[in-house]
Amino acid sequence: MKKRWRSNFRITLEMIKVEHTLFALPFAFLGAFLGSGGFPEPIRWLWIAIAMAAARSAAMAFNRWVDHAYDAQNPRTSSRALPSGQLSRIYVMSFTVLSSGLFLAACSRLNRLSLALSPLALLIVFFYSFTKRFTWSSHFFLGLSLACAPIGGWIAVRGSLDPGMLLFGLVVALWIGGGDILYACMDIDFDRRVGLYSIPARWGINVALRTAVVLHLVMLIALAMAFLYFRLGWISWGGYFVVVLLLTIEHRLVSPNDIRRVNTAFFTMNAVISSVLFFTVAADLTLR
Asked: Minimal CA–CA distance to 266: which of 219, 226, 209, 214?
């Protein structure tokens, strides 16, 4: 029994891609740092981390549960835990419910507004899983899901909302939306065959890549506006120009004739981008 539990736990972590928590967690911490003007209280920091990890775990598990039939048909995803039979649908849904409960409990330890908005946050991240069935704009719903991270981090500290954090939310939405368009290029043939919606499936890879570039350019404008709004200093702006460089590299990794490096462009580069933004802004606020 103990061996079976360990095996399920390992497979579960692989299923939810726990290492990709690096996408959203730095932005949640960034919102908390901005709200605190520096390091938040350690206990508040802990509950923010738990809330973010639990919300993302619930979202990923629910997505796998909803998409298991499509994953079974797609050669790229057929080896995932559900279609390969490594985990059962009951197990995955139970994990989703438990992760959701942990998220709600963590929000209750932060403040009233965090708790009040927590069901809405879960609704947004769960709804995304259905969007590829009816709209090519599903990428933007994923962006909206991740945009909750910096806004939630600020609310967790302040118990209120600030227009500047909506700018950071927009930054994340555009960044993730553009990245997801790149990622969807890998499934263009499968999506067209089974009737799933995406920008690559609807308009082709050339249009998809150009759309991603435009979204990331607008993201950089929104990020500059957010930096100006919060009057961030030279360390943050140093991070800004590193992000410009990283996004440039990300787009050079993928071309209409070669999408083999999409995983590197989407996962590796984006994890580095979110970390760079957090650490430079955190250093800026701490050293003032």
From this structure: 209
What is the tens place of the pLDDT at every residue in 189-215? 999 999 999 999 999 999 999 999 999
**Residue 270: which pLDDT band, with cuts at 50, 70 and 90?**
confident
pLDDT per residue as tens digits for the range 19-33? 666 677 899 999 999
Using CA atoms, how far apart are residues 114 and 106, in angstroms rounded to an integer? Answer: 9
Q: Which fold has domain 2-286?
A: Tetracycline Repressor; domain 2 (1.10.357)
Domain spans, the chain: 2-286
* DSSP secondary structure of 169-232: HHHHHHHHHHHHHHHHGGGHHHHHHHT---HHHHH-HHHHHHHHHHHHHHHHHHHHHHHHHTT-
